[in-house]
Design a protein that fits this description.
alpha/beta, two-stranded antiparallel ribbon, 10 strands
Length: about 290
């Protein structure tokens, strides 16, 4: 992995990928198009008990500078594409919102750019990725490509589509590809000449489902996961994050990880909800 990578870029990537070749990313960048998503209304408080258990954070520049302690030693993956919100029919009409120069100034480990294959703005999103990769090369700054699906593509989480999207991202020069897990995921990995991290997506029904997604992803060849809502919208965020960490870095089975999570559930790990959460909030949070 990363055999043909420059020293500077490899140094940044080592903040994201641990020595065992695995990566546990915590995604908290949803606010860039969702606003104050429930569970992440106050980011600094929401991540306080989570950051000791992760390898890196994926977040927007404003949340980094306002909510993350500069003493944080993990990787920082900054959201670099955006320009739309959930108020639109879809969110694929994006541009670049962060330059590689600014990301470098913020000491980022990488930048993240979404591509929308098959969407109305496919061409534009692919040029966003190309431009970001070309500019980032000046700073030995890695680029993570996100094979995003908007409202119109929400059912495109299957092998043929994900193989197409992930391969295109790798062809453009993405250092890491973030995509969804699917049946036959081994084939997606095999056809993508770049390391893959799996997106958690909208909140799953049970902790077993979350841990099974992590386990199956690793078994199929992914180097890690980038989870958000399945962690910080959980009733016990710091319990489930330790279960995910166990699967990734301690090679726990789903059963072993679930036993670990169950043993950690209690008042100390319960999410403190300070705001009313409506059915509309839950519905909106599950759109993408």
């Amino acid at each position: 992995m990363f055999e043909h990578t420059s020293w500077g870029k490899l140094s940044r990537l080592r903040r994201i990928v641990a020595n065992d070749g695995r990566s546990l990313m915590l995604a908290i960048d949803h606010g860039y198009f969702m606003g104050p998503t429930h569970g992440m209304e106050r980011p600094a408080e929401a991540i306080a008990d989570l950051v000791p258990h992760i390898d890196s954070l994926m977040l927007s520049p404003g949340i980094l500078t306002s909510c993350v302690d500069p003493a944080f030693k993990g990787g920082i993956v900054l959201r670099a594409s955006g320009g739309n919100s959930i108020l639109e029919d879809d969110i694929d009409n994006e541009g670049l919102i962060l330059s590689a120069r600014e990301a470098n100034r913020l000491n980022a480990s990488a930048i993240a750019v979404s591509i929308y294959i098959g969407a109305d703005h496919q061409h534009q999103s692919l040029l966003n990725l190309a431009n970001a990769i070309n500019e980032a090369a000046q700073f030995d700054l890695p680029v993570l490509a996100v094979t995003a699906v908007g409202k119109k593509l929400k059912d495109k989480k299957e092998k043929r589509y994900l193989s197409l999207s992930s391969r295109i991202a790798a062809e453009y020069g993405a250092d890491i590809v973030k995509t969804y897990y699917c049946e036959g995921f081994e084939e997606v990995v095999a056809k993508t000449p770049a390391p893959i991290v799996v997106a958690g997506g909208p909140k799953l029904d049970t902790y077993h489902d979350v841990l099974e997604l992590c386990y199956n992803s690793i078994q199929a060849g992914a180097i890690g996961v980038d989870m958000g809502r399945n962690i910080w919208q959980s009733d016990y965020p710091s319990a489930i994050i330790q279960g995910v960490k166990g699967v990734l870095h301690e090679n726990l089975t789903v059963k072993e990880a679930l036993e670990l999570v169950d043993g950690l559930i209690g008042d100390a790990t319960r999410r403190k909800s300070k705001f009313e959460v409506t059915e509309e909030d839950i519905k909106t949070s599950a759109i993408h």
